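Q: Here's a chain of 108 amino acids. Please give me its 3D structure as tokens.
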Amino acid sequence: MSKSDTSEEAVFEAAIEAGADNVEDGGETWDIYSEYADFDRVRTAIKNAGFDIKNSELIMVPSTTVKVAGKDAQSTLRMMEDLEDNDDVQAVWANFDIDIKEMEAFGN
């Protein structure tokens, strides 16, 4: 939901009351996370509370991450890019943690 329309406190309160696990600052939006089984109930409760939902989708959030650096980071980023460019792939999720400087260097 758009940040310009709502305060953090109001969103957080409504989300937690709806059964959400977390609310995060997504830049221009508030990102609300819940368990898969609670997704529809949380989404409906947020909407019924009067909030304008810009987007809702199921995503994978890793419970653990793996630190990747150097050549392994480059290979991992290349593989992710190839998967995302594949027309037959609908979504790509991963549990790696790569330093932002290495990611920026890969993009150049």
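Q: Can you summarize the key feature?
A: The first strand starts at residue 22 and ends at 25.
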